[in-house]
């Protein structure tokens, strides 16, 4: 009887022990299902400088940034859901190699959503959280204008857009630093990252289209190119510019009295067809708008009030399409003979003529105007005058003969003529000052370096 009682007690203690052990076990939590969230909805979660994305969230999109061109940080990728949907910048914790057109999925559970310089970005995301689902996908760039980019920068940040028909400027003509693209509606900046594969290459200014990713940096709205191919040159755009800056000009002993002199300058031989010229650093009065120590050409004119310089390049300029002149009225009064320039009644008149035949000296019958007169009535401020070289049909309509047209097209040389409306004679001149003359080609000449 005692043995049976002991057995019962042991069984009871064992059962009690089992029940106690079961109570101390921690139940295994069910995994949180990872579900997709749109990029637009993700951005709505950004209510502070940094927030943690809720558990169980992932996003997907098409890569629109180009890691190979290196115009973006190596750890950064930009994805967009679709052409008409949102995009986002993602900063990984390591360099990434996703290609343009890759479809990627990123687990963003409990990751950081940050506001950085006006952009909402996924920041310091472990690269292991991203995987490629597919490749060869495309996102069509949104066709728009610069002013619309500015208006919609917040919602378009991290998306691909395309601007049309404009000018790219800055960087001294090279892909460097911060550039600016201007269309008919406004302008946006574009950052060239140090180390980009196309950094410091010469760009073509006249563009048919300019494509890039909208980025926000404080108050600055950018459209950052992915690579050099995002800048598409306009039809007939200038691809090579040949510049005469007059730095090699040297005055002769009779520069105040001679005409018909030949100057061997950087671009070639030029001829003086006026009485009084001067290759000079800024004269008294011009220091406020000219660069100290730089040389300019001053044209004082003759008794007919004409200032003329002529190219004698032979056929070197064959194929030239555009000429740009940077010119100003000088404030130098050392030779005004007491005459005052009155901007309400006086002006400078600029024209460019083409040579119809070889002639020395140059006569009026040997040349013809290529443009209508361009006038300005101020001093101390540069004006940029751009002319498009007329076609053969244009010249024919101006009354040129076919022989004259053929001569000019084969040997294009030019007379740059400046005059003033002031009636005065020698000793009472108001000089014009030229900083440079650019000759633009739409095909790089064979002689160009």
What report would you give on this structure?
The structure is a single chain. With 449 residues, the chain is mainly beta. 12% of the residues lie in helices and 37% in strands. It has six helices and 29 strands. Strands 1, 2, 3, 4, 5, 6, 7, 8 and 9 form a nine-stranded mixed sheet that branches. A hairpin with a 4-residue loop joins strand 12 and strand 13 (187-192).
Structural class: mainly beta
CATH architecture annotation of the largest domain: Sandwich
DSSP helical segment count: 6
- The CATH topology label of the largest domain is Jelly Rolls
Query: What sort of overall outline do the alpha carbons produce when their principal axes are compared?
Result: elongated
Low-confidence stretches: 7-11
Query: What's the number of extended β-strand segments?
Result: 29
Which homologous superfamily in CATH is the superfamily of the largest domain? Answer: Galactose-binding domain-like
Number of discrete domains: 3
Main pleated sheet:
9 strands, mixed
> Quick check: average pLDDT?
89
The proportion of strand residues reads 35-45%
How large is the radius of gyration?
A: 35 Å
What is the distance, rounded to the nearest whole angstrom, between the alpha carbons of the first and last residues?
Answer: 117 Å
The percentage helix is 10-25%
InterPro entries: DUF5689 (IPR043744)
Domain DUF5689: 36-230
Protein name: DUF5689 domain-containing protein
């Amino acid at each position: 009887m005692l043995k049976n009682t002991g057995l019962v007690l042991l069984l009871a203690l064992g059962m009690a022990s089992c029940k106690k052990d079961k109570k101390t076990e921690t139940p295994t939590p069910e995994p949180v299902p990872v579900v997709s969230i749109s990029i637009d909805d993700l951005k709505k979660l950004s209510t502070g400088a940094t927030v943690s994305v809720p558990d169980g969230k992932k996003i997907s999109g098409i890569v629109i940034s180009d890691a190979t061109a290196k115009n973006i940080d190596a750890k950064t990728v930009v994805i967009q859901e679709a052409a008409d949907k949102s995009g986002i910048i993602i900063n990984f914790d390591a360099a990434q190699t996703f290609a343009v057109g890759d479809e990627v999925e990123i687990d963003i559970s409990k990751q950081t959503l940050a506001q950085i310089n006006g952009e909402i970005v996924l920041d310091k995301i472990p690269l292991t959280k991203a995987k490629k689902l597919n490749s060869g996908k495309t996102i069509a760039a949104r066709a728009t204008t610069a002013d619309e980019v500015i208006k919609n920068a917040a919602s378009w940040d991290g998306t691909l857009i395309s601007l049309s028909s404009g000018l790219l400027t800055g960087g001294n003509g090279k892909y460097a630093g911060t550039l600016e693209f201007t269309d008919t509606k406004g302008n946006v900046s574009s950052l060239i990252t140090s180390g980009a594969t196309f950094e410091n290459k010469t760009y073509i200014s006249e563009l048919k289209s300019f494509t890039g990713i909208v980025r926000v940096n404080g108050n600055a709205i950018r459209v950052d190119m992915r690579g050099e191919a995002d800048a598409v040159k306009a039809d007939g755009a200038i691809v090579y510019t040949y510049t005469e800056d007059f730095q090699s000009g040297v005055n002769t002993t009779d520069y105040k009295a001679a005409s018909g002199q030949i100057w061997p300058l950087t671009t070639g031989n030029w001829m003086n067809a006026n009485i009084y010229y001067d290759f000079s650093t800024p004269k008294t009065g011009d220091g406020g708008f000219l660069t100290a120590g730089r040389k300019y050409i001053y044209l004082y004119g003759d008794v007919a009030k004409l200032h003329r310089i002529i190219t004698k390049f032979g056929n070197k300029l064959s194929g030239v399409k555009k000429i740009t002149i940077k010119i100003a009225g000088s404030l130098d009064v050392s030779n005004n003979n007491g005459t005052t320039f009155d901007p309400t009644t006086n002006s400078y008149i600029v024209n460019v003529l083409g040579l119809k035949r070889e002639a020395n000296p140059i006569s009026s019958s040997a040349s013809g105007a290529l443009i209508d007169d361009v006038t300005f009535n101020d001093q101390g401020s540069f004006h940029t005058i751009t002319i498009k070289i007329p076609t053969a049909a244009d010249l024919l309509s101006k009354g040129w003969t076919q022989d004259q047209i053929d001569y000019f097209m084969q040997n294009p040389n030019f007379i740059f003529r400046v005059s003033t409306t002031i009636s005065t004679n020698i000793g009472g001149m108001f000089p014009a000052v030229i900083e440079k003359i650019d000759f633009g080609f739409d095909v790089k000449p064979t002689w160009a370096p």
